[in-house]
Amino acid sequence: MFRTSQRAGLTTTLLPLLALAFMTSLPAQAKSNKIKTGKDKTTVCHVTSSGRVIELRLPIQAAASHFGHGDYIGSDAGCDTGFPPTEETPLEEPPIEEMPVEEVPQSYRIMALGDSITEGVFGAQSYRKPLVDSLNNLACDYQMVGTREENLTPTDFISPHEGYSGHRVDFFVEGSVNAGNPGIDSIMADHMPDIILVHLGSNDMRLAQPVNAPYLANGLGGTIEELDALVTKIWNANAEAEVYIANVIPWYGTSSANANVTGDIQSLSTAIGTWVVNENDTRLHLVDVNSEYQSSYMQSDLIHPNASGDLFIANTFLTELNANGVCVAN
């Protein structure tokens, strides 16, 4: 079939030639009739603005007026389906091969928050030291953040944290100027961690605070309710923060304020596990430091971890972090 060129400047030249080609390809009588009467027709394939092809039967002379507008002459069988052919039909481009995108390692701002078990006492470096060593060995891109750096009993280990010896959960929820605890609102505003490691509640049990009770200020309410308030404030400051909460290590020592401290610690441990399950929030993770903890992991006071206890706590936190895709070994 014949085709018209869409290029500017060629249409004027091609139109007479196309019409002439049709005219000369017909018998003499047909040519005479076409010229004189215009009754002989040919197939014109008209292309609409949307690209649809419509088949028209038009006199030769009328058909010539369609050339130059994207229309073309069809064959005896009619028009081609789909889009009309052009002299510059674009070549089908090969599919673009998707190059693998190299993943950029996630960077984490990690905060350890708690009492003396987080801060480190009596020469112990706390669980933070073996945890930091493990994160470094994994080449994890992280930064420990917090207001404090040293331990209660100075050691050569310096790393930011929010561990306060002797502090209850409510000290963090409400802040305590006298105890030097700025409170979680200020802590989050100053450091904005992505991950918060929490070991809190032991001092609450030491002072015979109830495990579950309506929230009351100054440590007079339930410890679980205070932990819930703490986590709520964390998420109010950073809705995407991941909270890893330990169910507190056992207590093998005594307390002058609570003769049943050992049993209460175990009750709190169970209650923390139940609370985390009931929360059913993917941002809240239970870290079980209780069920496999041993008395041999304690310092001589039977309350604070020795080096083995710190290593156990660190490994338990790390295992849960890894299970959630944080600082996984390559």
Note down, in words, how this protein is organized:
The protein has helices at 11-24, 28-37, 60-64, 116-119, 128-137, 169-174, 184-191, 202-206, 223-237, 261-279, 307-323, and strands at residues 41-47, 53-59, 72-73, 108-114, 142-144, 162-163, 195-199, 242-246, 284-287. The protein is α/β, with parallel strands linked by helices and 330 residues long. It folds into two domains: 11-73, no CATH class; 108-323, Rossmann fold (3-Layer(aba) Sandwich), CATH 3.40.50. Strands 4, 5, 6, 7, 8 and 9 form a six-stranded parallel β-sheet that branches. Strands 2-1-3 form a three-stranded antiparallel β-sheet. Helix 5 crosses helix 11.
- Characterize the biggest β-sheet: 6 strands, parallel
Q: What is the molecular shape?
A: elongated
Instruction: Report the C-alpha radius of gyration, rounded.
Output: 40 Å
Number of strands: 9
- The total domain count is 2
Order of helices and strands: HHEEHEEHHEEHHEHHEHEH
Percent of residues in helices comes to 25-40%
pLDDT under 50 segments (min length 5)?
1-38
CATH H-level superfamily title of the largest domain: SGNH hydrolase
What is the CATH third-level topology name of the largest domain?
Rossmann fold
State mean pLDDT (0 to 100 scale).
82
Q: Strand pairing plus helix content: what structural class?
A: alpha/beta
Beta-strand level of the residues, as a percent range?
5-15%
